[in-house]
Amino acid sequence: MSATVSGPAEASTPIAAPSAEAELEFRSVGHAFGAVEVLDGLDLSLARGETVAIVGPSGCGKTTLLELAAGLSEPLAGRVSVEGCESVDGRLKRCAYMPQRDLLLPWLTAIDNAALSPRLQGLSRERAREAAAPLFERLGLGGFERFRPAELSGGMRQRVAFARTLLTGKPLLLLDEPLAALDAITRADLQEWLIEALEAEPRTVLLVTHDVEEALYVADRVLVLSQRPARVVLEEASPAGRRQGRAETITDSRFVATRERALLALAGERGPR
Amino acid sequence: MKRTADILAPLLLLLILLVGWQLAARWEVLADLFKIEPFLIPAPTEILNSLWQDRELLADNAWVTFREVVGGFFVALVLGTFCAAVLHVSPLLRRAFYPLVVASQTVPIIVIAPIFVIWFGFGTGPILAIIALICFFPITVNTLDGLATVDPEQRKLMRTLGAGRLQTFTRLEAPTALPYLLSGAKIAVAVAVIGAVFGEWSGASSGLGHLILTANSQLLVPLVFAATFVLSMMAIALFALLALFQRRFAWWGEPGGGQSRSST
After folding, report:
1. For A18-59, how does the pLDDT look when each residue is reduced to its tens digit (9 = 90+)?
2. Which CATH number fits domain A22-103+169-270: 3.40.50.720, 3.40.50.2300, 3.40.50.300, 3.40.50.1110?
3. Cβ pair B72, B127 in contact under 8 A
């Protein structure tokens, strides 16, 4: 991507040899908040360019998992590495995090919001906008550059937030329920859009969602997590043929069977009500 | 249609009150009621007359008070913003100093004013200090509150976007707090004129407060009212100016701000 901004920090940090092309690796990671165990011996590995979705019962530690990957917190046990780098700063430099809420700054225009990361790295406003402009076109945001967040629909705001995530220029995208706050139609719309965007801008993606169908539809691989303390209880490769169109894909018998298995695994983890 | 009513209603009420006052003063109703000399209760027309007749006197003294108010206000703006930023960054300092900030507002200005005159001497010094003291509290407390409203999630996001502590402050926390700061400044500028009057009463040879005091002692009641009117207008004008500034440069703090231009 031409808009990628590689800061001097990138070059000065020595990158340890990545183990077998793993972009993100969790090795028997445990974490807890006080007495509450959130993760327990969690293993996870993402290959470069892969899109992996994580589904799990609510409150099972999905956001904790993303924050550990992003370098926002340190695991109490085990190891987390991004491109072979284990330090907090190293992870922070390599991960782009997209929260569930768009968290756009209301005083900035759409393009200035998207170009926040280049701006923070010292680019002038004009240069940062230039860096963001081609991506805006590719993500279907052309013409909305000067709009303020309050003037955009929820779906458009999520797109701008995604552009902001991409413009960090970081190799690993951590998406925390990016479509959860949207209505069903916009959501389906943005799932298609996300697939196309990731084809145009290939990255390694860890997507957290509570929607099994979304996980199977968007990702290459789906992991189902257990109740707290979370570990992986099921792993399924997605059978979605992405060029078929939505209706064909989600009614395909293999897709339906996989979805049933994932839902069963998830239901088993919900426990008694 | 509704807008016209919004403007007309207060104007109409004002007109009714003024006409009522005029008639009461003319027919000496109030003077009879309070058993005082009629010339002590000026009619609006007499005040208007004084406004015109004494326009140079009023303008000269208003200019003095205006400079005091603006000067004291800016001192408070700089100190208050700086103080809020420091107390925001350091929780320890906030715990230590916050009670003192609150205490600064509980001391009656009317008591402080003469002490300041003793300390700083006769002149603009103590008046500026009094105005700054009275303005300091709303500015500091509001700015501090504004800085505290920043979403922790937003702070986290700034970190992942590569922002350092200073960048998080300048790009996220300061703009979030700006509308709050301006709300505090609006309150401050409205009370600043009160500070100016107390200051001038304690020791000054010019200014609207001083003029009110001397006109009062000479029983020039219309001039007292005229000076008070000018003082009040000054506060309203400064308040309006800040409100305009807020709407123009910090609109995101207002409910529904920035939605004037719809995308659909």
Report:
1. 445 678 989 888 898 888 888 888 888 999 888 999 998 877
2. 3.40.50.300
3. yes
What ranges do the domains of chain A cover? Answer: 22-103+169-270
DSSP structural state of residue A210: S
| Interchain proximity A116–B171, CB inside 8 Å | yes
Contact A175, A161 (CB under 8 A): no
Q: Which residue has the tokens 């993303």?
A: A66
- Give the A-side interface with B, CB within 8 Å: 7, 67, 70-72, 92-93, 95-97, 99, 101, 103, 105-107, 116-117, 119-121, 144, 147-153, 156, 164, 168
The dihedrals phi and psi of A86, each to the nearest 5 degrees, come to -105, -20
SS3 B75: helix
Please give the Cα distance from A87 to B56 (Å, whole number).
Answer: 72
Q: How many CB atoms lie within 10 A of CB A244?
A: 12
pLDDT for position B262: 34
Q: Classify A173 as helix, strand or coil.
A: strand
Please list, in sequence order, all residues whose beta carbon lies within 8 angstroms of the beta carbon of residue A57, skipping any fewer than 6 positions away.
Answer: A225, A226, A227, A266, A269, A270
What is the amino acid identity at position B33?
L
3-state SS, residue B211: helix
* Token pair for B1: 């249609």
Nearest to B167 by CA among A130, A265, A120: A120
Least confident window among A84-88, A227-231, B4-8: A227-231
- The predicted complex's ipTM stands at 0.81
Mutation site, B161, B169, B178, B260, interface A, largest A CB count within 10 A? B161
No. of helices (H) and no. of strands (E), chain A? 11, 9
Tens digits of residue pLDDT in B211-260: 999 999 999 999 999 999 999 999 999 999 999 999 999 888 754 444 33
**Domains in chain B and their CATH numbers?**
44-251 (1.10.3720.10)
pLDDT score of B241: 95
Specify the DSSP class assigned to residue A154: H
B142 to each of B106, B151, B252, how far by Cα in Å?
A: 17, 17, 16
The amino acid occupying position A205 is V
Give me the residue label for tokens 């491109």.
Answer: A83
Residues B161 and A167: their CA atoms lie apart, in Å, by 9
Could you give the count of Cα atoms lying within 13 Å of A189 in the half-sphere of its Cβ?
A: 12
Query: Per residue in A179-192, is it b (16+ CB within 10 Å) or e — as a string?
Result: beebeeebbbebbe
- List, in order, residues 6 or more apart from B92 with CB less than 8 Å away: none
Q: Which two tokens mark B44?
A: 């609006």
